[in-house]
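User: Fold this; tokens only.

Assistant: Input:
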Amino acid sequence: MPSTSALESVSERQTRLRPTLDQVYLVAALMLIALRPLLTPIPPHDFWWHMATGRVILESGTIPQVDLFSYTRAGEPFFNQGWLAQLLMALLHQIGGLPLIIVVQALVLTLAYGLLLRLCILRTNRVRMGAAILLLATLPLSFDNWTVRPQTYVFPLFAGFLTVLTEYRLGMTRRLWLLPILMALWVNMHGSFVLGFALIGIVFIGEAIRRWREQGVLGKTLDPSLVVWGAATALATLLNPRVAEVLGYVTNLLGSSQVTDLVTEWSPPTIRDINGAIFFLFVIVTALVMIYARSRPDLTDLLLFGAFLWLALGATRNIVWLGFVATPLLATQAATLLPPPSPRRFQGVPTMNAALIGLLAILLLIGSPWIKPALLPPDVGALLAKGTPVEATQALQALPQRPQRLFHAMSYGSYLIWAAPEQKVFIDPRIELYPYDQWRDYILLGQGADVEALLAKYAIDGMMLSIEEQQPLLEYARARPDQWREVYADDETVVLVTRNVQR
């Protein structure tokens, strides 16, 4: 006769093989999160120069502190704050190439938004509603920030901070000791580590006010544990190769005119583009839900929402952080508008539930970077985004004599740094490295303005031009075949060299 433990084990296996509808919602949400980065080709902007820097760190064992890649700023100091993420990217590429980087990107995002979904369920005990809000509201708000770069590698760290602090607020666990560990990773990966301080500070203020309202004595409302672990988290920011200089780097970056004026990510959202429209719609829906909810929102939730809304209104790149802090608030308030969950609510047909999960698993398999190039159309199955100058760079490298001072589109500079490190670049997405005057000259030259003077100023002897972005300059060069020779052209890119550069 089988033992009780054996019977319980069989029962657990049967339960796993008979998934409920709640489990389908949970698994579907996580799988759909992973599917988006799997199906998104890697854009050429930030990715490649981060990869190249990681390669330098991997090969040399040191973190470069000056520019190694351009001829216009060669040897100039450059604060490389995201070195740990760059090293990780280079290691992943060395082990498994681009497919492994894409898979890890999917896992990183699934972890980050999986933690966020867990918070929604923790706050509401509603799996289906939490999954629906995440998929229909939060993810569209955040997609624009899902490119492969160090920023996405810290999403799980931000979500980790939010999880630890939420559990602390709910009195469930005391895992504040995790905050310094998460910060030690964060400060070596991305400048957004300062947002960790914002989370701690806002939670401290919100909880102090709440306890003061309950107890009426301010001195007794301050929790020393949060103060102690907050101070330890602040000290953890010094655990980086440049110690306290990292704070100066963030300050200088935020005050850099070329960053704030020239980078679209740093401009305020506008309803005139799709991402801005989604942002404003999300804010309106969240406000309406709070207005009509049957209970007042938690003060700390409101403070978090207000602070990160202010950041998002100032710069598009901050919208993703608003999504993290606003989603639990939206879920909590929306839950008050629904009837209480029934313990006997419909859980679907187990066979159909299992079939749905299996179908999603097949979609993930088809979307994997090892399989999708062979099964999907080129525009969907490609690992690299349109505009990556792979063939143009190969043609440039094949020239018996290469131009020494190449002018090119900014995103091309990033790819050249990786694929042709011997070809020093004019400019690239390291916006803060290049002075504002050089960015102005870059824009003017691409628009075909002051061409003769600018070509002479930088002694340009070759050009790799984006047909879409730099058509006026291309027309200028093609109108002067006695000065410029076209050595490569495709639907997106044209490479030209001066006549004194040999064939």
